[in-house]
């Protein structure tokens, strides 16, 4: 498994706080307050109800710890593990009120991140045995990008740029609005970008093969082949001859991925890794009444 990227827990803690505030409003967990006697202790287990790759265990723990700093957390698996249906992911013990109040928030984080990791694993498996890498995109949930990109790597895929700040990405709209569309527009765009940000890699989006050629002349660091057919991408691979890494993007499906990888592109970026995944089915079950030893 790849080394997982660091999680910005300062940001995560803010997300947890906001999520709990959204759920609790001004009156708190009224059901738990009304039904569960104060001081009741309990143990619960998190169970994977369908097979998939788990991600976000530490985030789930932090939800319960926010509500009960003394809770005991015992993970049974690690982020990035493929888990069969019925696998116990973790056990948590503490105040019953904290377990019940934090249940949905913890599961929301864990289920979505595990869903992303599971889809990322499917795409990564589709290019296994080839040099091609699967990349994510910026099509992520606002505020969740660090977590969702973490889940992508947990699933076996690779992170693209994190935001607008860490790579220059020159698209057709940039060139049009900058008055640089037309002959040599790509070259002038790359020159301007390098003059202002000499420390950043420059990627150029190419919709047509003549734009690929111009990106080569501009000495771009990466070329994104946008919505090209397999035949066009094969020609782009031939034109670049390994001089500049190529990224296939647009219209990417899991079924199409193996044929694109066979063309010899270096990367395939997939927005579906984060923008439309289905949450992995995970549940929290109260397992037993905890003793005072907890």
SSE layout and pairing:
Blueprint: H1 9-24, H2 30-35, E1 41-48, E2 52-53, H3 57-67, E3 72-75, E4 82-83, E5 88-95, H4 96-126, E6 133-135, H5 145-154, E7 168-170, H6 172-177, H7 185-196, E8 202-206, H8 209-217, E9 222-226, H9 230-240, E10 246-249, H10 257-261, E11 267-269, H11 272-275, E12 282-289
Parallel strand pairs: 6-11, 7-8, 8-9, 9-10, 10-11
Antiparallel strand pairs: 1-5, 1-12, 2-4, 3-5
What can you see in these coordinates?
- The radius of gyration is 23 Å and the shape is elongated.
- Mean pLDDT is 95; it is low at 290-294.
- Helix 3 packs antiparallel against helix 4 and helix 8 packs parallel to helix 9 (230-240).
- It is built from eleven helices and twelve strands.
- The strands form three sheets. The chain has a six-stranded parallel beta sheet.
- Strand 10, helix 10 and strand 11 (267-269) form a beta-alpha-beta unit.
- With 294 residues, it is α/β, with parallel strands linked by helices.
- It has helices at residues 9-24, 30-35, 57-67, 96-126, 145-154, 172-177, 185-196, 209-217, 230-240, 257-261, 272-275, and strands spanning 41-48, 52-53, 72-75, 82-83, 88-95, 133-135, 168-170, 202-206, 222-226, 246-249, 267-269, 282-289.
- It folds into two domains: 9-118 and 278-289, Quinolinate phosphoribosyl transferase, N-terminal domain (Aldehyde Oxidoreductase, domain 3, Alpha-Beta Complex), CATH 3.90.1170; 158-269, TIM Barrel (Alpha-Beta Barrel).
Essential attributes:
single chain, 294 residues, alpha/beta, Aldehyde Oxidoreductase, domain 3, TIM Barrel, six-stranded parallel sheet, four-stranded antiparallel sheet, 12 strands, 41% helix, disordered C terminus
